[in-house]
Write a structure and sequence with these properties.
mainly beta; Thrombin, subunit H; 13-stranded mixed sheet; 19 strands
Length: 375
């Protein structure tokens, strides 16, 4: 590993321990992909010699026993847990000549453990936040700590009307419940190995930004490539139609693309040119319907998208998803703050690269400066 970069690999069942030295020595590359929504995944590549300890450690695990993997990097003295997950597939490519075989292990984050058992018909608490808490409590043994944001507009069902019951696996139910209220659900590993934050709430697109991605500024440039695309026809105004409980008359509301949950990240917000009538909300109460509309407007408001790659050591730290980052040198239309939508880490001996995608709901920076160092 380059100076200033250290890799920590832990492997085990429920409790992951430092991997044996023969395993670390055989490791050739690591790829970790993290998305703002949905599952995250990883790949480990090893050279596989005859009678290797990897055969016993990875391939001969008893059926039904999850092999847990924790990947952590330390860059310039700052540790960052990139992945806390479980193995899912093993692929071996035998050597054609005298060289060692190649074994590739593919896995997913700990949400994979939540998607194994159908729990149809299981009674649950009345409020959605208590339902999520009750389900996540089963995964405390993995170090999963819930962070639950109650719906901004309360939605409590009376027990005499209907008793909530689970439909599908834990992951499927929590994810569907999040979509119902315009929320997201994901696991964020760290801040220490063996601990993950289970977040159920609105997608947050504000906060302290990460150090700026700088392009076309000579020695200040800290990215290998960076490009942007403007797609004005992506912006959509969702129409939410609900039925008045007193008069039974339909009421239609238009949801704007910029809301308190989705603040403008630029000075010029293009007006949406598409209109979409939301279905499956007429039978919901006003709060649930509005939250669904807000989520739809936010998801379709990002008219600016960017992609690029960087060398972590030149950038100075690990670029993290689900946070803001500044951009400099890309031109007046695209400079300013952006939301990091996904990041792919590629680690091999002697290098640590990242590719990333950015999103934004506006043009032209609405801030005079962006930070160039971390907080």
């Amino acid at each position: 590993m380059p100076s200033g970069l250290y890799l920590t690999l832990l492997v085990g069942s429920i409790v992951a321990l430092p991997a044996p030295k023969p395993v670390v020595d055989a490791l050739t590359s690591i790829t970790v992909t993290t998305s703002a929504t949905g599952r995250s995944g990883f790949q480990l590549s090893f050279t596989l010699a005859d009678r290797s300890v990897l055969q016993a450690l990875f391939l001969l695990a008893p059926p039904g026993v999850e092999v847990r993997v924790i990947i952590m990097v330390t860059v310039n003295g700052i540790p960052q847990v990139l992945m806390d997950g479980v193995m899912r597939e093993h692929e071996i490519q035998p050597a054609a000549g005298s060289g060692g075989s190649l074994m590739t292990i593919t896995g997913e984050d700990l949400t994979a453990t939540m998607d194994l058992v159908q729990m149809d018909g299981l009674p649950l608490p009345m409020t959605p936040e208590l339902r999520v808490a009750a389900i996540l409590a089963k995964y405390a043994m993995y170090g999963v700590t819930p962070e639950i944001v109650p719906p901004l507009i309360p939605d409590i069902e009376l027990p005499v009307e209907r008793q909530p019951t689970q439909d599908g696996t834990d992951l499927a139910y929590i994810s569907a419940l999040a979509r119902q209220y315009g929320y997201v659900f994901y696991l964020d590993p760290g801040p220490v190995p063996g601990i993950s934050r289970a977040y159920w709430g609105p997608q947050i697109k504000f906060g302290l930004p990460q150090p700026a991605l700088t392009v076309n500024m000579d020695t200040w440039t800290n990215v290998e490539q960076l490009g942007f695309r403007y797609s004005p026809y992506k912006a959509t105004t969702p129409l939410v139609t609900i039925q008045d409980e007193t008069t039974a008359a339909p009421i239609t509301l238009a949801i704007p693309p910029v809301t308190p949950l989705n603040p403008p990240l630029g000075a010029v917000v293009p007006p949406p040119v598409r209109v979409e009538q939301l279905g499956e909300v007429a039978n919901k109460n006003l709060g649930a319907a509005l939250l669904r509309g807000l989520a739809t407007a936010s998801a379709n408001a990002d008219v600016v998208s960017g992609s690029g790659s960087l060398d972590v050591l030149r950038y100075g730290q690990v670029l993290l998803p689900r946070q803001l980052v500044g951009v400099r040198g890309a031109g007046p239309a695209f400079d300013g703050l952006h939301y990091v939508d996904s990041v792919t880490h590629t680690i091999a001996r002697g290098q640590y690269k990242q590719s990333f995608t950015l999103t934004r709901n506006a043009l032209v920076s609405n801030t005079p400066v962006v930070p160039t160092i971390g907080f």
